[in-house]
Amino acid sequence: MYTVTVNPHRKIGCIDQKIYGHFTEHAFQNIYQGMYAPDHPLADVTGLRKDVVDALKEVRVPVLRYPGGNFVSNYHWEDGIGSQNGRKRRFDYAWETVEDNQFGTNEFMQLCRATGAEPYLCCNMGTGTIRDAMNWVEYCNSNRDTYYASLRRENGFEEPFGVKYWGLGNECYAPWQMGGMNASDYAKHAMEFGKAIRFADPNAYLVACGFESDPAWNIEVLGVLKDMVNSISIHHYSIDWGCFNLHDYHQLMSISEFVNEMIKSLRAAIEGVTGDIYHPMKIALDEWNMFGWVNERVDDNSFYTLENAMVTASVLNTLIRNCNVVEMANYSVFVNINGTIQADCRGIVLRPQYYVFKLYTHHMGNVLVDSDVISEQFETNMPIDRRVFADYFNEAAVEKGGRLRSGVEKSARRSIKYLDSVSTIDETRDELSVALINKHPEKNVECTVDIIGSREVKNAQVHSIWSAKLNDCNTAEKQSVILETSEPICRNGKFTLELPRHSISVLKLTY
Predict the structure, then answer these.
(1) 397 — pLDDT class (breaks 50, 70, 90)
(2) Catalytic: 287?
(3) d(CA 157, CA 160)
(4) How far is the CA of 463 from the CAs of 355, 429, 487, in angstroms?
(5) Which domains does the chain have, with CATH numbers?
(6) Burial of 466 by CB count in 10 Å (0-12 exposed, 13-18 middle, 19+ buried)?
(7) HSE, side-chain direction, 13 A CA sphere, residue 8
(8) What whole-number percentage of the chain has pLDDT above 70?
(9) Quick one: DSSP state of residue 395?
(10) Cis link prior to 160 (omega < 30° from 0)?
């Protein structure tokens, strides 16, 4: 018997909806032919594909990070504004292609307006200058009679864009990043970039570049920037650019615990450097996905399965549990490549992960409440060596469907519950939601949900994502993994649910 006991009167913390955010980069067909395709029959007057925009709106995307990613470290934002006929063609050294800059700041802001997402811009700290960053802030946010604010008006945007979130570089620690640097140099540069951005807009929310694989980097950077930035970011890709084994199901089901420990480690660095366990600095997981972008099947819809959806949902549960420290997360990417939507000339395919985001944005609340979970457990060897990039350029390090450090496979045993559950409330709508992920690969289980101090329920529904096989997927021909709705059984004030093997469900009660 699996049981979840929920105490809706014990509030743990507020859940920022930005944890359901997404990321878009000038890479492959993420933007061009993905979201932006002026010649597509469904394109609007701005060049955005209406079918993609509608899909983004349906999952209520709260925030979009742009323009990179590796791309940003050699991107100069002024190349992407003004008359599209006059925009400069540049070679993109990150993804080894020609960038024609037809999609730039203006088009990105139109995308944000069309979808209701808040913009989050990442500054070029590779080949860019402090002046570039200040000018970009002026262009986006100033209403003064100055050059860049006037240039925005000339380009057809009278009112400021009001961009609040600004990233201080992307993966600046990395040897593959143009302008990569050590922690000491990054901290000095980021301090000056941050000061300049705040001169241009005192209300700017600044996100520093953290390193998920090196606590020493984070400690040194935080030592300098702790009073400057609002948040520090980390990235996570489990496979291709990570150390998880694609062919070990139970290890994949520990990815959310890996992310949890990564968050705890970074939070410990914040508290250690500041000496304040209540320090307001937050964490942004502003790139994350089970898969990286380099797999040979990256564009194959059959690669994105129910198993992928379960990992995605489990990571969202982890972000909800850490709501007091995680303020933003950006799924990487949203369209094409490894994203939740495949868009091509024929139309769009909504991959299983898409329905996870729809499930959570539509049915989970904004306040985490206490819950106790009893279920069977499994043990697995979870990778704990976070230095997964140490031998990035060593092909011999690529093994088992993931990128490992050459000659090193560092892991530890972890006991993990088959039932992954979090509970939330929405006080404005008087709703309680319980997310229930049955990670058991073979067994359907009966789960009892007991609400302490429960009141009369006006409506009870179970929203579920399931399919018969873990490798079931969605294609243009067949949608195997979708959202379905049913009703739970209520006995003596307790709700009983039959949770199918490898399934994702949300019990939603309205009072």
Answers:
(1) very low
(2) yes
(3) 7
(4) 11, 18, 9
(5) 19-365 (3.20.20.80), 373-377+417-510 (2.60.40.1180)
(6) buried
(7) 22
(8) 95
(9) G
(10) no
Convert the pLDDT of each residue in 166-217 to its tens digit: 999 999 998 889 999 999 999 999 999 999 999 999 999 999 999 988 899 9
| Residue 274 backbone zone (phi > 0: left; psi -120 to 50: alpha; other: beta) | alpha
Catalytic hit among 287, 307, 327, 431:
287
From the list 25, 99, 118, 171, the catalytic residue is 171
Mean predicted confidence (pLDDT) in 154-159:
97
Say whether pTM exceeds 0.85.
Answer: yes
Query: Is 271 one of the annotated active-site residues of the chain?
Result: no
Q: For residues 413 and 382, what is the distance between their CA atoms, to the nearest angstrom? A: 6
Helix, strand, coil percentages in the chain from 3-state DSSP, rounded to 5? 30, 30, 40
Ranges 14-23, 68-77, 170-179, 355-364: which has the least confidence: 170-179
Task: Report the SS3 class of residue 339.
Answer: coil
**CB contact burial 11-41 (16+ within 10 A = b; e otherwise):** ebeebbbbbbbbbbbbbbbbbbbbbbbbebe
Contact 303, 347 (CB under 8 A): no
